[in-house]
Specification:
By secondary structure, the protein is α+β, with helices and mostly antiparallel strands. Helices cover 41% and strands 17% of the residues. A hairpin with a 5-residue loop joins strand 5 and strand 6. The radius of gyration is 18 Å and the shape is globular.
Length: 236
């Protein structure tokens, strides 16, 4: 088990993704007012967020036991098919901290809705950027340990997606003792603070991550982000 602190000043937060998250496209004229809101929200996030993560490498057997969760996973699921083919599996939990959530709430309470909404989206993208930074550090560690071969790839998978039921977060967070970094679960298995991510980083040959989106749960998926991730590895 390892505690990792991530400096928000070093995070590459995708400006365009923030605007897309608010329904703006490349054809939308981004006004100076919107740009200013983004810059203010980014500044607040970098100052208020306290990004911390816990990470632990586990065996395939350990992971499958944790993955079983509360017995609510789809069968078959993407993760249960990919994990046994991995060279390395790393459980993780990451949060941007409670202060940023409190700041978003304060802005909405004070009726500064535009800045509050912008900060909410910036904080989501910042948390995602922190998870990407954590993933890069994991790859560097695996390379040093001789566990990452040329042509290998890593992808993150989280409860709530690809057939892994959201209730899977219970065993995952218990294993990581995620309360150390302030993460708790509510009765619906959702994490608090809100700007948090948990899951598994799966490392192995690129081809293990390639799958067709013809599982039963794919029909209910609204974003199909898996296709872009697979294409980024050279799949279809």
């Amino acid at each position: 088990m390892r505690l990792v602190n991530i400096e928000t000043s070093n995070l590459d937060i995708d400006r365009d993704a923030v605007f897309r998250g608010q329904g703006m496209t490349e054809k939308t004229r981004i006004t100076r007012t919107v740009e200013t809101l983004f810059e203010r929200a980014l500044s607040i996030y970098r100052e208020a967020a306290d990004c911390a993560a816990l990470i632990a490498e586990v065996t395939i057997a350990q992971f499958m036991e944790i993955y079983g969760g509360e017995g609510e996973n789809d069968v078959p699921s993407v993760v249960e098919l990919i994990a046994p083919k991995a060279r390395a599996l790393m459980l993780f939990a990451l949060t941007s901290g409670s202060k940023i959530t409190e700041e978003i709430k304060r802005l909405f309470d004070e009726k500064d809705v535009a800045l509050g909404y912008m900060l909410d989206v910036v904080a989501s993208e910042g948390t995602e950027a922190a998870a990407e930074e954590l993933t890069r550090r994991c790859v560097a560690d695996l390379r040093r340990e001789g566990k990452f071969a040329d042509g290998d790839a890593v992808l993150r998978y989280s409860p709530g997606y690809c057939g892994w039921h959201v209730s899977g977060q219970k065993k995952l967070l218990e294993f990581l003792q995620a309360s150390q970094i302030g993460i708790k679960l509510n009765e619906s298995f959702l994490m608090s603070p809100e700007k948090s991510i948990s899951g598994v980083i799966i490392s192995g040959e690129k081809k293990i991550h390639f799958f067709k989106n013809n599982f039963s749960f794919c029909n209910a998926c609204t974003h199909k982000s898996c296709r872009a991730r697979i294409r980024s590895l050279g799949g279809k």
